[in-house]
Amino acid sequence: MRIILYTGKGGVGKTTISAMTAVRAAELGHRTVVISTDSAHSLADALDRPLGHDLVKIAPRLWAQELDVNRELQVNWDKIHAYLTEFLKRQGFEDVIAEEMALFPGMEELFSLLKLREFAESGDYDLAIIDCAPTGSTMRMLSFPEVAGWYMEKFFHIERKLVKAFKPVAERIMKVPLPTEDVYDNVERLYLRLKGMKDLLSDAGKASIRLVFNPERMVIKESQRALTYLSLYGFSVDCVFANRVLPKDLQDPYMAGWRDIQTEHMKTADACFSPLPILQVPLFPREIGGVELLGDAALEVFGNEDPASIYHTEKPFEVSKKNGEYRMTIHLPFAVKENVELWVKGDDLILRVNNVKRSIQLPRALVGLEVKRAKLEQGRFLIIFEGRKK
Ligand SMILES: Nc1ncnc2c1ncn2[C@@H]1O[C@H](COP(=O)(O)OP(=O)(O)OP(=O)(O)O)[C@@H](O)[C@H]1O
Ligand SMILES: [Mg+2]
Questions:
Q1: What is the pTM of this model?
Q2: Which of 133, 175, 205, 386 could form a disulfide with 137 if both were Cys (CB 3.0 to 4.6 A apart)?
């Protein structure tokens, strides 16, 4: 099953583009499921159909769902939920508030991963599209399997044993309930279901993350940060979407002024996201809702291309550490040494190749470090940073 996740800053058009992609993919013959993980769901508005926690068939080969974390938690993870609620109630929170608070930030993301796994295992779908919550939550979602693995390996079994041994005494002293064996069984089951998701999500041949942005400075900056983070953690971004791009032939001088500003921002976007393809989505004269309008809009954006195809596989860069030095490798297939310039400006690494500028937001570990050496070999540009100063 192919997996596509759409993410980006709040309000940039993630839901609209997820729905467009889903409608077009289903038209082209892919059995497609689109799910929204953001608790402030708007997928139903985009598809112009009521949606709920269960899958709803929207069109031939197209299903949609808005994940209800509350339901998911109560039905599948009742022991954890009951424990968290009890824990909070003992801290003095009222019942309803305790139940609400037992839904920790990140649960939406956690459950969407589990859903994704369910879809993949069922064999019923060719494509799953996830309309994610804004960028930060997506990052948290993608790091879940790794964090959970770390916790399970390092702490889980020790904690479980300790709790079992000291439960009666500890509960009296600390005045909080400690988890029972059932809760730990639930946690373990959750973990086992999450295992393997990291491999699935970082398989560039199957899973892609797509960043949606608007041609505005701050939005581009955030998407660029997201790209750096994703590349660093080995996830594959296959393309980015510039949404609400103004048409070229604007007569109105007010709007034409805005269009010129956008044109400048699009140049920045080119520099930030190259070599990833940037797909442009025009600002439509009205809100796009319903299968028919979404299908027409998708045709305008994707043309004859299959939106489920993988647009780009090469990672923008990779970072490793060897003998205390950080090494950044950037794919530059056609560059020759004489035409490559490199410098660091603030948090950005700027590359000029044949007079085309490209900027990469440096991972935090590399900010403030000096470039020691750089060399071009077999289409790859290797940049060696000095080790961290003592
Ligand atoms: N290209 C476009 N032309 C016209 N309207 C658009 C376009 N893209 C999005 N919209 C409208 O802008 C609004 C926000 O879009 P959307 O819900 O897709 O954004 P989002 O990134 O999913 O937001 P959130 O972060 O709240 O989930 C919607 O009303 C949508 O119809
Ligand atoms: Mg949305």
A1: 0.83
A2: 133
